[in-house]
Amino acid sequence: MRPPRFVSHEIYRQAGYGGNHPLAIARVGPVMDLCRALGWLPSGEYVESPVASFAELTRFHAADYVNAVRLGTGGRYNLGNMENPVFPGLFKRAATSVGGSIEAARLALAGRVAFHPAGGTHHGRRDRASGFCYFNDPVFAILTLLDGGVRRLLYVDLDAHHGDGVQDAFASDRRVRTVSIHEQGRWPHTGDVGDVGEGRACNLPVPPGLNDSELEALLQEVVLPLARRTAPQAIVLTCGADALAGDPLSRMALSNVALWSAVERLVALAPAAVVLGGGGYNPWTVARYWTGLWGRLSGRAIPTTLPAPAAAILAALDCDLVDEEDRRPEWLTTLADAPNPGPVRPQLEPLMEACHELA
After folding, report:
1. Is 123 a catalytic residue?
2. Residue in 61, 123, 161, 182 annotated catalytic
3. Which residues, including other chains, have CB under 8 Å from residue 149's CB and lie 6 or more apart?
4. What is the pLDDT of residues 323-347, one digit of tens each?
5. Judging by DSSP bridges, how do beta strands 273-276 and 201-206 pair with one another?
6. How far apart are CA 260 and CA 101, in angstroms?
């Protein structure tokens, strides 16, 4: 592959969502800052995200819904509530996320791994907002890859929440297979192991406390063999940081080193790869995970201890959802978590058995 590219935009530094919303925290801005403080984001590797046009957005989303987002009105579209608030700059921010995923897919078609941490809004529906997601940018990444001639595409969702919007968008498209590892019983309460969509979905709802050894078992027994059988010409990943230990909106317990390894192995299975962000509500774990992920994707060595300018970026973060006593000292000085191995619990056996036979 050609050298990877980091797709983003300064718009993500602007305040959004409102002070009492889980996404009011700084997320993408600190990732860009950390990468630059480490010398990992020279100008040649950074691509500014375009803003998706109305015509592009309405390829998937209903025109009346896109207009409602643009105008900031329309309770019938699940807008303007605590889940999906309306705030200044909402439309441009959401359209920029879509534009970034379209651009990432174009870069992937040219033989690059493209990392777009502001992407991953996987709950968005054709005609309504859902789960903090206004437009579904992974859908647009997939559509762009299909436009480019891809006939076998694998979508893998590592977010703590089921990738329902993406699965449903491509349920009848034989070119696309979706795999989602998510916490059992967590919103949106979809993605049971028996949910195979129209035969192209693999869902792995895991028990709370999923550890690194259990993720590895799922990868070795289900996800990687399924990916190899699919022989994808392109892969799109949503890499939610809410699957990490310490996230306030889930109860999974993965380390970022386990997720980095999973992403690297999946990316290696296809000649075109788009890596998106997703959920994540602890600003320290989000910033460390996605910064380190870019480091690994771009071939950099992860430092044992962060230099002072990088550590200062983490020290400046704050979050009302993470209590002071729960903030770990290593979140301010390192990128890599300590691995979190553990027993592979019996609850995972039915998941692995159910997915073995998927073609």
Report:
1. yes
2. 123
3. none
4. 999 999 999 999 999 999 999 999 9
5. unpaired
6. 20
Picking from 351, 169, 139, 95, the residue whose alpha carbon sits closest to that of residue 238 is 139
CB 145 within 8 A of CB 105: yes
Task: Tell me the pLDDT band of 358, cut-offs 50, 70 and 90.
Answer: low
What count of Cα atoms within 13 Å lies in the side-chain half-sphere of residue 69?
A: 28
- Cβ-based neighbours of 225, under 8 Å, separated by 6 or more: none
Phi-psi region of 199 (alpha: psi -120 to 50; beta: other; left: phi over 0): left
Number of helices and strands in the chain (H, E): 12, 8
pTM: 0.98
Task: Give the pair of three-digit tokens for residue 297.
Answer: 């994707």
Residues 29, 13: contact at Cβ < 8 Å?
yes
What does 140-161 look like in DSSP terms, one character per residue? HHHHHHHHTT--SEEEEE-SSS
Asked if the model's pLDDT at residue 357 lies above 80, the reply is: no
To which residue do tokens 């704050």 refer?
318
CB-CB contact of 218 with 206 (8 Å): yes
Helix (H, G, I), strand (E, B) or coil at 306: coil
Asked whether the predicted pLDDT for residue 138 surpasses 90, the reply is yes
273-316 pLDDT, tens per residue?
A: 999 999 999 999 999 999 999 999 999 999 999 999 999 999 99
DSSP assignment of 179-225: EEEEETT-TT----TT--TTTTEEEEEEPTT--HHHHHHHIIIIIHH
Phi, psi of 279 (to 5 degrees): -75, 180
Residue 321 has pLDDT above 90, yes or no: yes
Phi, psi (degrees; rounded to nearest 5) at 5:
-130, 145
Distances (CA, A) of 29 to 97, 118, 287, 335, 340: 14, 10, 9, 16, 28
